[in-house]
Design goal:
single chain; Four Helix Bundle (Hemerythrin (Met), subunit A); four-stranded mixed beta sheet; two-stranded antiparallel sheet; globular; metal ion binding; TIGR03084 family protein; Maleyloyr_isom; MDMPI_metal-binding
Length: 244
């Protein structure tokens, strides 16, 4: 993948979310997000906790998620439940954590993998997952509050992540990996290409829709994406932009 540095884009995604959060009223912070069972404050607490985990992982000592639950989702829910706090405290915690995470990722040895949820990732790949998570949770915050959060060229990192992890997603679903080509239209109208153009299966359409399907914020049937070949529809069903 070519383009802007992913850590720069992670910082930009965080700044975009920070600008939204800085303008929220106390009632908005306490309101339900699109993440089931979580308020806006809970979503930001989760982001703070996971950014703190980035720092710990780069330092060589990531948290053991299994201590908090049998599944990643269960562990994340338990962590949020255990550390709920007033919105101003949570916002300050996330602000500090995100800056520390960016600094840690910038200073990390590029070729040395660090442990993360589902295994070891190189720092740039870990940064890419953090772009995806901040973007998805920004949608969880802004959607219910009807706050505009336009798609940007930063989606290229998320689309790359979804496409590059398709073999893992197929295996996780108990399906044999299949080669799938993706031709996705960026927010500015340019076209991004991922994979082998001669693959038997292909997905074409808006990058924003593809990324939302991968974030499980949009059902494949509602995404308006065009599928071709024997494995494209299955690829959309298993597509994921996250490690759990």
């Amino acid at each position: 993948m070519t383009g802007p540095d992913v850590v720069d884009d992670l910082e930009a995604e965080q700044e975009a979310l920070a600008a939204v959060l800085a303008g929220l009223s106390p009632s908005a912070w306490a309101s339900p997000s699109a993440a089931a069972g979580w308020t806006v404050t809970d979503v930001v607490l989760h982001l703070a906790q996971t950014e703190e985990a980035v720092v710990a992982s780069v330092a060589g000592g990531p948290p053991d998620w299994h201590r908090f639950g049998d599944t990643v989702d269960g562990a994340m829910a338990a962590l949020v439940e255990a550390e709920r706090a007033p919105s101003e405290t949570v916002f300050a915690r996330w602000q500090a954590a995100r800056r520390a995470a960016v600094q840690a990722l910038r200073q990390a040895a590029p070729g040395r993998p660090v442990r993360w949820v589902a295994g070891a990732l190189k720092p740039r790949t870990l940064a890419t997952t953090r772009v995806a998570e901040h973007w998805a949770h920004a949608l969880d915050v802004t959607g219910p509050l009807r706050i505009a959060y336009p798609d940007t060229a930063r989606l290229r990192h998320i689309a790359w992540l979804g496409h590059s992890t398709l073999p893992y997603a197929f295996r996780l679903a108990g399906l044999p990996p299949a080669e799938v080509y993706c031709e996705l239209t960026a927010p500015d109208g340019t076209v991004w290409h991922f994979g082998n153009r001669s693959a038997a299966s292909a997905i074409r359409g808006a990058a924003g829709a593809f990324c939302r399907v991968g974030a499980h914020r949009l059902a494949p049937a509602d995404a308006g994406l065009h599928t071709e070949g024997p494995d494209a529809e299955a690829a959309l069903r298993v597509l994921r932009n996250y490690a759990a």
